[in-house]
Amino acid sequence: MRWFLLALALWAAPALAVQPNEVLSDPVLEERARALSQELRCLVCRNENIDDSNAELARDLRLLVRERLVEGDSDEEVLSFIVSRYGEYVLLNPTKGGSNMILYYAGPAMLLFALLIGGFYLRTRARSTPEGSNTLNEEEAERLKRIMRD
């Protein structure tokens, strides 16, 4: 029974990150706040969203999201406000435009570049070794026979 209660407590731990005093009275705004909190990264915990994090900074961000929603901002306005303050790193799913395009396309571009270099190398290597270059001419054959006799 203890193991069951421990497993249940560990499973429910992320749900306890949002404190009761943070919850908005309007259920529609609270649902929007929860959805936005799922998209924002905790800057302390790294790859954890602020909705699941118990860090103080995550709590401050949750309160900031709720504050902006109460003031009447749209979801996009809230996200852009937080990104303008903390940078694009705060987004769990960064935008696919601007400087992030380098991150999205660098891997496939490097793979194509490596395949091209490998293909050119194999092609020039195949052309550089002519057929019959491994056979000995008569002078070399005679010299080899003399060495083998000694």
Structure description:
This protein has six helices and no strands. The chain is mainly α. The chain has two domains: 2-90, Helicase, Ruva Protein, domain 3; 100-149. Helix 2 packs across helix 3 and helix 3 packs across helix 4 (75-86). The longest helix is centred in the C-terminal third of the chain and has 29 residues, at 100-128.
Mean model confidence by pLDDT: 82
Separation of termini?
88 Å
Q: Helix- and strand-based class?
A: mainly alpha
CATH structural architecture of the largest domain: Orthogonal Bundle
Strand residue percentage: under 5%
Oligomer: single chain
Instruction: Based on Cα principal axes, name the global outline.
Output: elongated
Radius of gyration: 32 Å
Which topology of the largest domain does CATH recognise?
Answer: Helicase, Ruva Protein, domain 3
* Count of discrete domains: 2
- Considering DSSP H and I runs of 4 or more, what fraction of the residues is helical? 55-70%
Give, in order, the helices and strands: HHHHHH
Give a short account of the largest sheet.
none
Using DSSP, what is the number of strands?
Answer: 0
> Could you name the ranges where pLDDT drops below 50 across 5 or more consecutive residues?
none
Number of helices: 6
Question: CATH H level of the largest domain: which superfamily?
Answer: Cytochrome C biogenesis protein
CATH class of the largest domain: Mainly Alpha
